[in-house]
Amino acid sequence: MAALGEQADRDGFVAVLDNSGLSTALEGVGPYTVFVPSDAALGADAEGLSDEAMSAPAAALVRAHIVPGALGRDDIQAAIDAAGNGEVQMRTMDDGLLTFSRNGETLVVSAPDGTTARLSGSETRASNGVIQPIDAVLVKTEAGE
């Protein structure tokens, strides 16, 4: 997913991804959808998780932000509509569940611990998936504790 490096305000996530050891996997066939927190959302965690000693927590954070398949916002909205109950769950690369719902016109993603983020900015379609910018980090990290 070379397109990640072209994202404005996402340098922190790219640095965490590079340290996680998962960059090569995301450059593969895919498809993947990556929910990428803004630099402001990652804050100091980005620097801490970029440290070589933090590669395992970096990998955990990255895996918690990836779902299989190339999911555009229209696809997520259609899945919510098809579910009939106003929300749909999707399994992440770390085997967690993200729950997607709407708050008015805004798509919201929730982690199992109740952490929520809004899909923000414009999605980017890449050759092997989709990059969905979000406004929060979906998991707590060792670097942030």
Please provide a brief summary of the model.
30% of the residues lie in helices and 26% in strands.
| Beginning-to-end CA distance, first to last residue | 29 Å
Strands of the biggest beta sheet: in what spatial order?
A: 2-1-8-7
Global Rg:
14 Å
Mean pLDDT: 84
| Major β-sheet annotation | 4 strands, mixed
Query: What percentage of the residues does DSSP assign to strands (E)?
Result: 25-35%
How many individual helices? 6
Helix fraction bin: 25-40%
Structural class: alpha+beta
> What are the secondary-structure elements, in order, as H or E?
HHEHHHEHEEEEEE
Number of strands: 8
Structure in words:
- With 145 residues, this protein is α+β, with helices and mostly antiparallel strands.
- Helix content is 30%, strand content 26%.
- The chain has a four-stranded mixed beta sheet with strand order 2-1-8-7. The protein has a four-stranded antiparallel beta sheet with strand order 3-4-5-6, with helices on one face.
- The termini are far apart.
- The model has no long low-confidence stretch (mean pLDDT 84).
